Amino acid sequence: MNFELLLSFLSIGGTLIGTFSGIVISNKLTVYRIEQLEKKVEKHNNVIERTYKLEGRMTEAEHDLRDMKGGDK
């Protein structure tokens, strides 16, 4: 009887250790992937901001060219 009881406790302990270690590893992987996605989003946002600034500068350049062409006539 004692052997079966010891074996059942060891089985339960092994199952619990395996389950919790799987949860911890899965959680670490999820956190890592979220961090990588945040880095990608930050890079994307920087590109969007730079593009917006460039579009504004391009509009100003177009207005300057239009003014220069209009002054020649």
TrEMBL record:
The chain crosses the membrane at residues 6-25. The keyword Transmembrane helix applies. Keywords: Membrane, Transmembrane, Transmembrane helix. It comes from the Bacteria. This is Phage protein. The lineage of its organism: Bacteria, Bacillati, Bacillota, Bacilli, Lactobacillales.
